[in-house]
């Protein structure tokens, strides 16, 4: 299978999986540790003027949208999973939600700030730099973006790459998909999916911190705050 078609399938499976998982989000998946996320969300909000317009991209079920509202901002949440958006609407009726993937963002200087938390790990390397550029375009001059980069062990990534290549999959180093097909089918057959199984059932890509720093600069963004915690690298960046 050609890589472009395979990536299209991976994205379609991710959407279907998150639709399937959405009823249990606030029961299980909304409870994972996020102390560092909250710390950097505070850093992000402290840098914003009051009463701004914010984008919550890849918002899922709206885990952090309430904090944006509580800080006095207007919020637009976008996600490619309609199931997750339905859960978000139930919890945060004051937020406007729209079904839209990160790759399809078409905003132009509309937001003082944007967040994208725990979502970019599902984006392939072909799309990642362009999404950062789309974030820059969505921000007003001097606007801020807070996003997270999922971290993974280099040896584990190499092992996953070798297993996927042995199966004939059109992967690049950093992608973890070697158990995806079996976990995906099993997950869709379950009403309640364990978190560990759900994680294996969706496409992941781990580009590494140095590569993302390069993409940030190339996108016309500048790092204001960065740190590690909760298994992620956290970036607060400003539009140049």
Describe the main β-sheet briefly.
Answer: 7 strands, mixed
Determine the CATH superfamily of the largest domain.
Vaccinia Virus protein VP39
Strand percentage lies at 15-25%
Please write the CATH class name of the largest domain. Answer: Alpha Beta
Rough shape? Answer: globular
Tally the structural domains.
2
SSE order: HHEHEHEEHEHEHHEHEE
Proportion in helices: 40-55%
In terms of structural class, how would the helical and strand content be classed?
Answer: alpha/beta
Rg value: 17 Å
Might you state the CATH topology name of the largest domain?
Rossmann fold
Number of strands: 9
Strand order of the largest sheet: 3-2-1-4-5-9-8
- The CATH architecture term of the largest domain is 3-Layer(aba) Sandwich
Please work out how many helical segments DSSP would assign.
9
Unreliable spans are none
Mean pLDDT: 96
Protein described:
By secondary structure, the chain is of the alpha/beta class. The protein folds into 2 domains: 32-151 and 206-239, 3-Layer(aba) Sandwich (Rossmann fold); 155-200, no CATH class. 40% of the residues lie in helices and 22% in strands. The chain is built from 9 helices and 9 strands. It has helices spanning 3-21, 35-46, 65-70, 82-91, 128-138, 154-166, 180-188, 195-200, 209-218; strands at 53-57, 74-79, 96-99, 111-116, 139-150, 175-176, 204-205, 221-229, 232-239. It has a 7-stranded mixed sheet with strand order 3-2-1-4-5-9-8, with helices on both faces. A two-stranded antiparallel sheet has the order 6-7. Strand 1, helix 3 and strand 2 (74-79) form a beta-alpha-beta unit. Helix 5 packs across helix 9. The longest helix is centred in the first third of the chain and has 19 residues, at 3-21. The radius of gyration is 17 Å and the shape is globular. The chain starts with a helix and ends with a strand.
């Amino acid at each position: 299978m050609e890589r472009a078609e395979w990536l299209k399938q991976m994205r379609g499976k991710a959407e279907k999986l998150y639709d399937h998982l959405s009823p249990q989000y606030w029961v299980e998946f909304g409870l994972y540790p996020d102390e560092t996320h909250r710390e950097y969300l505070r850093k992000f909000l402290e840098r914003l003027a009051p009463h701004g317009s914010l984008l919550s991209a890849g918002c899922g079920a709206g885990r952090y949208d309430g904090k944006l509202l509580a800080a006095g901002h207007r919020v637009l949440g976008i996600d490619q999973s309609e199931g997750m958006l339905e859960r978000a609407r139930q919890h945060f009726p004051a937020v406007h939600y729209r079904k839209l993937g990160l790759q399809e963002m078409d905003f132009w200087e509309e937001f003082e700030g944007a967040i994208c938390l725990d979502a970019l790990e599902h984006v392939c390397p072909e799309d990642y730099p362009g999404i950062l550029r789309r974030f820059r375009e969505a921000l007003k001059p001097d606007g801020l973006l807070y996003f997270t980069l999922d971290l993974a062990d280099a040896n584990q990534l190499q092992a996953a790459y070798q297993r996927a290549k042995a199966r004939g999959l059109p992967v690049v180093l950093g992608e973890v998909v070697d158990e995806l097909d079996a976990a995906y089918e099993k997950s869709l057959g379950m009403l309640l999916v364990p978190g560990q199984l759900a994680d294996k059932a969706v496409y992941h890509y781990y580009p590494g911190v140095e590569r993302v720093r390069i993409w940030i600069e190339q996108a016309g963004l500048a790092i204001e705050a960065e740190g590690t915690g909760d298994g992620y690298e956290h970036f607060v960046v400003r539009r140049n």
